[in-house]
Design goal:
This protein is of the alpha/beta class. It has a single domain, classed as TIM Barrel. The protein is globular, with a radius of gyration of 19 Å. Strand 12 and strand 13 form a beta hairpin. Helix 1 runs parallel beside helix 10 and helix 3 packs across helix 5. It is built from eleven helices and 14 strands. The strands form four sheets. An eight-stranded parallel beta sheet has the order 3-4-5-8-9-10-11-14. A two-stranded antiparallel sheet has the order 1-2.
């Protein structure tokens, strides 16, 4: 069994492994993963030293939490850290109820997610998550998907933000104060919304997906410095930008789960060429890069197979020469001030 270093989460007592496990794929939205393979994925992560696991009721409409809980319950509770999310409450579909047009395929049958960022919604979501996981004490509770990338409507985004901060936030703060959970934060796809939440409340961490990667560092403008100064830990999701940094950069590479624009493909290929000259897999550089920022506590890639999990663990431990980072900066692919691994 390998060892992975841990970092403290904000000013809390929690420590998370620097490589975490993103449990969205085992929910089954983007690929069909059999039950046995899902458990093999988790076993590979555990044997590789991963002790931080992130899930959500949204991932497979409950399937991800069910699968993760089944695995984690085999270990002592103090041996792992688990985060899940609030914002959607699962509703059992009634026989005559119409299926929403935007319901994702391959989720747990018979369940429909209903957005609810209110005080009661937070409490119901937490209770449902504990029951699905079969774990009574969770560590981190994250506000999920209040960002334009998800909502695509500024007025609705602002409405959900207000509901959360006026109502749901009170539940999160009470749960943390009572010791029911150890930390609160947000799981978002935009750095500016992470910053907006950080300024509006007392959050311990932010899970930022896809916006601080080897390919793009827009979060460095305001959010990352703010997080560092205010002891808000950042958890990096989507370090491969949904595939474009995962290996070869094909013409049909994906970014943000859709076809990548040409300028990003060209930039990714230039980064890949530097990696190739230094005999470093592109994915290894992409995985290790975010961890150089002092605000970052963990990076949590997803995986579709046990072999991909083992590859991620290998990428974390892959030795990368300092010359690679120097060349990326010299070629204008990273700004001179961007923190890089030493």
């Amino acid at each position: 069994m390998r060892h992975i270093a841990a970092r403290r989460l904000g000013t809390t007592a929690l420590e998370v492994s620097v490589l975490g496990f993103g449990a969205a794929p085992i929910g089954g939205f983007r690929a069909t993963i059999a039950e046995a393979e899902a458990q093999a994925l988790l076993e590979a992560a555990w044997q590789g030293g991963v002790r931080f696991f992130d899930t959500s009721p949204f991932y497979g409409y409950g399937r991800s939490e069910l699968r993760l809980g089944h695995f984690l319950r085999q270990s002592a509770r103090e041996e792992f850290v688990i985060s899940t999310k609030i914002g959607r409450v699962m509703h059992a579909r009634q026989p005559q109820e119409q299926v929403p047009a935007n319901l994702r395929s391959n989720g747990l049958p018979g369940f429909i997610p209903v957005f609810d960022y209110s005080y009661d919604g937070v409490m119901r979501s937490l209770e449902q998550s504990c029951l699905r996981l079969g774990i009574s004490r969770l560590d981190i509770l994250l506000v999920h998907d209040i960002d334009f990338w998800t909502i695509q409507d500024r007025a609705l985004l602002d409405q959900r933000f207000r509901i959360l901060m006026d109502s749901g936030y009170r539940a999160l703060d009470e749960l943390r104060s009572a010791g029911v959970i150890g930390a609160i934060g947000c799981g978002l796809n935009e750095a500016d919304m992470c910053l907006r939440f950080a300024r509006a409340g007392d959050f311990d961490c932010m899970l930022l997906a896809g916006r601080y990667t080897l390919l793009e560092q827009g979060a460095l403008d305001e959010f990352m410095p703010y997080a560092e100064v205010h002891d808000i830990s950042v958890i990096i999701g989507g370090p491969y930008n949904s595939g474009i940094l995962a290996g070869n950069v094909p013409d049909r590479a994906t970014h943000d789960y859709k076809a990548a624009p040409r300028h990003l493909i060209e930039k990714a290929r230039r980064i890949a060429a530097v990696c190739q000259r230094n005999k470093v897999p592109l994915a290894a550089a992409a995985l290790q890069f975010p961890l150089a920022h002092p605000a970052v506590a963990s990076v949590i890639p997803g995986a579709l197979s046990a072999e991909e999990v083992r590859q991620n663990i290998g990428y974390l431990h892959h030795e990368i020469p300092a010359k690679l980072w120097q060349e990326l900066k010299a070629d204008g692919l990273l700004a001179e001030a961007v923190p890089v691994p030493s």
